[in-house]
């Protein structure tokens, strides 16, 4: 929904109700968009963030058993003394 700033002054409470319901309200001045009223995303609790991180980690592909860890993938380039082979 788009509404001019002057109209919005008279109906701020209604616009806030619309935003709370999930609608985006765009304020205009002289026909140009200048601001948006949008619902505030609720902040996640520490426990909710932990659960979300666990869910994302669970979706990650599991490394194959024979995979070489990244920190060891270039070891063949160096000798036992740590210098380039």
Automatic annotation (TrEMBL):
InterPro entries xref list: Antitoxin_Phd/YefM (IPR006442), phD-YefM_TA_antitoxins (IPR051416), YefM-like_sf (IPR036165)
Region annotation (Disordered) ranges: 63-85
Annotated coiled-coil segments of the chain: none
Source species, domain of life: Bacteria
Transmembrane portions of the chain: none
Similarity comment: Belongs to the phD/YefM antitoxin family.
Cited function: Antitoxin component of a type II toxin-antitoxin (TA) system.
NCBIfam families attached to this UniProt entry: phd_fam
Record protein name field: Antitoxin
């Amino acid at each position: 929904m788009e509404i001019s700033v002057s109209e919005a002054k008279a109906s701020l409470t209604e616009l806030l109700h619309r935003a709370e319901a999930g609608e985006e309200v765009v304020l205009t001045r002289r026909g140009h968009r200048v601001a948006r009223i949008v619902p505030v995303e609720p902040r996640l609790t520490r426990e909710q963030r932990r659960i979300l991180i666990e869910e994302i980690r669970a979706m990650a592909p599991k490394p194959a058993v024979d995979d070489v860890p990244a920190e060891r993938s270039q070891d063949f380039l160096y000798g036992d003394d740590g210098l380039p082979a």
